[in-house]
Design a protein that fits this description.
The complex is a heterodimer of chains A (about 450) and B (about 475). By secondary structure, chain A is α/β, with parallel strands linked by helices. Chain A folds into 2 domains: about 240 residues, Type I PLP-dependent aspartate aminotransferase-like (Major domain) (Aspartate Aminotransferase, domain 2, 3-Layer(aba) Sandwich), CATH 3.40.640; about 120 residues, Aspartate Aminotransferase, domain 1 (Alpha-Beta Complex). Chain A is about 40% helix and about 10% strand. Chain A has a 7-stranded mixed beta sheet, sandwiched between helices. A 4-stranded antiparallel beta sheet of chain A has the order 9-10-13-12, covered by helices on one side. In chain A, helix 9 links the parallel strand 5 and strand 6. In chain A, helix 3 runs antiparallel to helix 12, helix 6 packs across helix 7 and helix 13 crosses helix 14. The longest helix of chain A has about 40 residues. Chain A starts with 7 loop residues before the first helix and ends in an 11-residue tail after the last helix. With about 475 residues, chain B is of the alpha/beta class. Helix content of chain B is about 35%, strand content about 10%. Chain B has a 7-stranded mixed beta sheet with strand order 1-7-6-5-4-2-3, with helices on both faces. In chain B, strand 4, helix 8 and strand 5 form a beta-alpha-beta unit.
Chain lengths: ~450, ~475
């Protein structure tokens, strides 16, 4: 099955015009011993057969239409209004390319302009670029920009240990071979002062996440204090943030961040096993002017764009609007806290998140997380939280639980019930579990690490 | 004229989405952290839909017309691909789900890795890079790390021919290596004498060569085997830019030719949509000696058929979060499976025939610097016409819009003055090609007889010719938001 309209008769006429006998004659420039190699591929399928094969592959997966999901850690199960997919499915949008010819690309250009306007509004910054591959590469590009602003003389990049571990990995990959020393990753978790203490004349930037990878929300005053110290040392403050949280909480632009960036997937993009997503990137104009237009020109380079996904984010922001995004954030906040209270009330589990958190929190569990998650999936139809032990050895047997507006009260209560049942000895009677669910007393919260 | 901005159609109190009320006991909010005004739009769903529908209608797209943008492979994007990427069992998967629960998705990725490796003749493939330029960065980092681990840390120079893809030098600079340009010979191939001189000059500082083949002139370098041999003999590696891979599916395998590493543009060759500028996918293939350096994790298959994530032993590291642009991979997989070996070869044969047909029809009408040679999937003409001294390529491009064609790529490659780079792709019919050629011939005549028609074009587009210089100077980056 192919999509070639020309027939043998068409080709015969065309070959005559070209002045060769056969199509094979067009490839004489390819060295003969390499010409027309055999391709060992499975036989071609018609569309009907293809759909059957795809369905068979899809059926081997357990998708979130059929499971309760409490997994986040960088990719989030938020509600996507149907209007988003309806609009981005228009061929006029998705089969156009980057606007090389502005007169016949006004739709894409205006949509991007509006995206940028809404991102600056959301982040409290002054200027936004069109987009990056994802949150991780947006952070890495922010680091590279900070190195350029520092004229490559400031070589220290201070990474918060509670910046998403994958984002830190990408920063390492992007900066290999450059004059860069990454520090900070061994600092105590959640200690902004420890990061500020590392700022000196060699520091290019400090990168923190808010809410951080463990879900903790830093207050604007704490962040402003950090920004003041970072700026005092002549470095830049880069804040990676969750766009949904900005529906409710103070944006980075209001507490001194020079760059606000992150993963825009939660806004209108499906989980899709990790991609395509879209990184947003916004900054203060002062920095744009100071650091020269070249840098802005670079960050809006077409090769960095995620036009399609940025369009989805733009439609999402416009559809949700100021009331809808706030409500999504409120629902997420309250449901996450309700879940945390239920789980913390369980005998064998302890919520370890200290202070305010947004949609994720840390739970110390009585058994290895991999084992726990396997049982949650197989016995309860629940996708459990992220296993923190791999990235944070001190958090072995700790799970990062994510709750969004998509999790119903019943799902949350079932999670607590399931966790209790899995921790209990096999013979234990589980009756009476419902009573303890109603208790929402403030429990003792210990500080992580 | 023109669609108002979303902020200009919003009214306080309007909503397009209604979320349910909180169904759990509420917890106190940290008052010190709450934001003040959230200046996002307030619109109804119908206004939202009309706004974006009207915006979409201001675009030229593949679905609405011929789009012969050279070097971009604007082929038809099959609808079944879009359906496949949205199937719940493929789209609604969390990237960090337990491997047991996503074996079907991992099988798809593994099969795609293997099929891409086979099509280009490589030993291993990573699907992680998110775009062509991202694949280039990946490739350069792989080359450098491989050489560094061999102890050849002094190597820091990459040769890039002047007929290479425009992003090559930028990528190399970003990775901290030095770029040296190699000129083309009169026949459009790499200038072998110049290449030898550069290799001799940089000696053991050579990381390698980044070669786009077919090159941006649309020519398959007849000396490719010798070029590769020269670089390899100097201890360097050769990077292949796969942007033009649509010309050689089943025609030649870059891995067999001797390329060490190459990126694939799934959004060009394998029909995934360009999406108004993305997302793409820049999967990277490598020869056996570089397999351990791939970024990852990639999908590995155990003897018992179980698929798992695996980080290659000497990996350069992760180049983005998670595994790759899975939604794009599903589309490319669907496309390759539906074509099979013969179908893929037919793609390139027809893409190359279509380009040669246009070249033949425009020969003698427009200057074509290498028009004496058979082109591959694209060719480069020039917008310089005898008897029309005031007319340039931009005028011709803008006039093409009046004929409802998207202009070809213009002013690229840089080595051809007034370049018009035409790539029709295999999914266009002879009638479409003829209509385009007729328009080009008509425009050449207009250029001589009524040049003002070209100078004032386009005449029917949503906006008149834009002053791009002025726009750049008075750059308005965002609209101060607020609803009335």
């Amino acid at each position: 099955m192919d999509y070639i309209p020309n027939t043998d008769a068409d080709r015969a006429e065309m070959l005559k015009v070209v002045g060769v006998e056969t199509v094979a004659d067009l490839f004489h420039d390819v060295p003969e011993q390499f010409r027309f190699p055999k391709l060992d591929l499975p036989p071609a399928l018609t569309e009907m057969e293809m759909l059957q094969e795809l369905q068979a592959l899809a059926d081997e997966n357990d998708d979130l239409n059929h499971l309760a999901c409490f997994l986040g850690a960088g990719a989030y199960n938020h509600f996507v209004p149907k209007v988003v997919d309806s609009i981005i499915s228009r061929g006029e949008f998705y089969t156009a390319y980057t606007p090389y010819q502005p007169e016949i690309s006004q739709g894409t250009l205006q949509a991007h302009f509006e995206y940028q306007s809404m991102i600056t509004a959301l982040t409290g910054m002054e200027v936004s670029n069109v987009s990056h591959y994802d949150g991780a590469t947006a952070v890495a590009e922010a680091v590279i920009m900070a190195l350029q602003v520092g004229r490559n003389k400031r070589c220290n990049v201070i990474l918060s240990p509670t910046l998403n571990p994958q984002y830190r990995d990408v920063v390492h990959t992007y900066t290999q071979g450059m004059c860069v020393k990454t520090i900070g990753e061994n600092a105590p978790l959640g200690d902004l002062n420890a990061l500020a203490d590392m700022c000196d004349k060699d520091a290019a930037c400090v990168i923190v996440q808010n809410p951080d990878f463990l879900g903790r929300l830093y207050l604007p005053a704490e962040m402003q204090a950090l920004a003041d110290r970072v700026h005092g040392a002549g470095a830049m403050l880069i804040v990676a943030c969750d766009p949904i949280s900005l529906g409710l909480f103070t944006p980075p632009g209001h507490y001194g961040a020079d760059v606000a960036c992150g993963e825009a997937q939660p806004m209108g993009n499906s989980l899709s096993l990790g991609g395509p997503y879209v990184g947003f990137f916004a900054m203060k104009m002062g920095e744009v002017r100071k650091s020269a237009g070249r840098i802005v020109g670079q960050t809006v380079d077409v090769d960095e764009e995620r036009g399609f996904n940025a369009l989805a984010a733009a439609i999402y922001m416009a559809a949700m609007g100021k009331h809808g995004l706030k409500k999504a954030a409120e629902l997420t906040y309250h449901k996450a806290h309700y879940a945390a209270k239920l789980v913390d009330a369980l005998d064998d589990y302890a919520v370890k998140s200290d202070g305010p958190f947004f949609k994720e929190f840390v739970v110390q569990c009585p058994l290895p997380i991999a084992e726990l998650n396997e049982r949650l999936l197989n016995e309860w139809g629940i996708v459990g939280g992220y296993d923190l032990g791999a990235d944070y050895p001190e958090l072995k047997d700790h799970m990062l639980v994510c709750v969004t507006e998509m999790n119903s009260k019943v799902e949350i209560e079932t999670l607590a019930e399931a966790l209790a049942a899995i921790a209990a000895p096999a013979s234990e009677d589980l009756e009476g579990q419902d009573e303890s669910l109603g208790e929402t007393e403030q429990s003792d919260i210990e500080e992580v690490a | 004229m023109g669609e108002p901005l979303i902020y200009e159609i919003c009214r306080a109190g309007r909503k397009a989405v209604h979320l349910p009320d909180v169904d759990v006991p509420e917890s106190p909010l940290p008052q010190d952290a709450l934001r003040g005004e959230l200046p996002l739009p307030e619109v109804s769903e119908i206004d939202l839909v009309r706004h974006y529908t009207r915006l979409s209608q201001l675009n030229h797209s593949i679905d609405t017309g011929f789009y012969p943008l050279g070097s971009c492979t604007m082929k038809y994007n099959p609808k079944v691909n879009e359906y496949a990427a949205r199937m719940a069992g493929l789209a609604n998967l969390h990237p960090l789900q337990d491997m047991d629960s996503i074996q079907g998705a991992m099988a798809l990725m593994h099969n795609l890795q293997e099929m891409l490796a086979e099509i280009a003749g490589f030993a291993a493939v990573t699907l992680q890079p998110a775009a062509g330029a991202h694949g280039e960065l990946t490739g350069v980092l792989i080359m450098r790390k491989y050489l560094y681990e061999k102890g050849e840390t002094q190597r820091d120079v990459i040769i890039v021919p002047d007929s290479a893809h425009g992003t090559n030098p930028a990528t190399t600079s970003m990775s901290g290596l030095k770029v040296v340009e190699c000129p083309s010979a009169a026949d459009g191939n790499v200038d072998l004498a110049a290449l030898k001189a550069l290799i001799a000059k940089h000696g053991d500082r050579l990381v390698g060569l980044m070669l786009t083949n077919p090159n941006t002139l649309g020519l398959f370098d007849e000396n490719v085997a010798e070029v590769l041999q020269l670089v390899h003999e100097a201890g360097g590696l050769v990077y292949g830019d796969g942007a033009n891979f649509n010309a050689i599916l089943g025609i030649a395998k870059p891995g067999a030719l001797g390329f060490d590493v190459m990126h694939y543009n799934l959004h060009k060759t394998f029909s995934t949509p360009h999406g108004g500028g993305g997302p793409g996918s820049g999967a990277v293939g490598v020869a056996a000696h570089l397999a351990e350096y791939l970024p990852g994790p990639i999908v590995a298959r155990d003897e018992d058929g179980y698929f798992r994530w695996e980080m290659p032993a000497k990996s350069i590291g992760r180049v983005k979060a998670f595994w790759g642009n899975f939604g794009i991979l599903v589309r490319a997989y669907t496309y390759i499976r539906m074509h099979g070996a013969a179908g893929l070869r037919a793609i390139s044969e027809n893409a190359v025939l279509n380009a040669n047909y246009i070249q033949a029809r425009l020969r003698g009408v427009y200057p074509i610097p290498h028009g004496d040679r058979t082109c591959m999937h694209e060719f480069v003409a020039q917008g310089k016409l005898d008897g029309a001294p005031t007319i340039n390529t931009m005028d011709i491009a803008k006039r093409l819009m009046d004929y409802e064609f998207h202009p070809p790529t213009v002013y690229f490659p840089l080595i051809v003055p007034e370049a018009i780079m035409i790539e029709p792709t295999e999914t266009e019919s002879k009638e479409t090609l003829d209509a385009f050629c007729d328009a080009m011939i008509q425009i050449a005549q207009e250029a001589r007889e009524t040049p003002e028609l070209l100078k004032t074009a386009p005449h029917n587009s949503p906006v008149k010719r834009l002053d791009e210089v002025r726009a750049a100077k008075e750059l308005q980056l965002c609209y101060a938001p607020g609803c009335s």
